[in-house]
Please model this.
Amino acid sequence: MKSMRFLATTIAAVMTAVMASTMMVNAFAAGPGMGTTGECNEYDISGIDLENAAVKPTLSLSRIELPLNEARENNIVTIELTVSGANEQYASTGLHISYDERLDIVMNKKNKCATLGPAGEYLMTGVRKGLYPNDFFVYSAAEGNFGCDGVLWTFQLQLPENIEVGDKFPVEILYRNENGNNDSFKNIEGQGNEICDQMEAWVFTNSIEQGYIEITEPVVQEDPIEAHLGDIDGDNKINASDATRILGAFSALSTGGDTGFTEEQLAWADVNKDKKVDAKDATVALGYYGYTSTGGTATISEFIAQGL
Ligand SMILES: [Ca+2]
Ligand SMILES: [Ca+2]
Model:
């Protein structure tokens, strides 16, 4: 009964925080600051012995480096909010997540901004759109310290159209204390319990690893066949012995024998890519050997295409 009563109290407190979060637009408490993506408040650590905190959790958001070509192919990026160092030591949480204004949140199938991860499986949770176009609020309660280490929330952000290499889009957990309803990371004992107070203070002052999506240089996918074309023995050189092996394979194929080639080697042996392995391929490989031996630097495909 006691735990049920506690749960009811906790939920009421969380709901109050939620109401405040959605209604109070400009009512930030003392010490307002700015994150990169929005406003936040300073956590008040007066009277708290941080260094001796028994539980020192870390909250981290994904840091994603995404090659430009991949980002253009799929412009929706999944971010994880991960808890570590607090396994089964927390219950009620309230966190504001804020993201770069150029990003758009992608709602999940239940039309929510975020989806609960395995770390929160035994918590009662909720998600609400925040006060600003670029933030939301996730919260939890439980009748025991059922919050686990691992991925607590995931959410998806859509990149804008005009991305370029070097673009960086921050994603942040911003501590907010709106009209006395502060964000939280507490155990079941709640405020006034030393372990609880120290744990929460630790999280919000020392141990948030903010996330980002950064667009990096495009990664050129190497064509595995192209990379080895003509190089039958895989020694990264195309020379007379490759030509000899191609010729040997051609003989074997002509007489219905076994080339002894793997499927990949057969593909590499079709140097002119006419779907046949024959004397022409051997000739080209040998010619290319002559070409590179006399200072040529084009690839074998360029050698063929340009008639070098
Ligand atoms: Ca070779
Ligand atoms: Ca061929």
Observations:
- The longest helix spans residues 2-23.
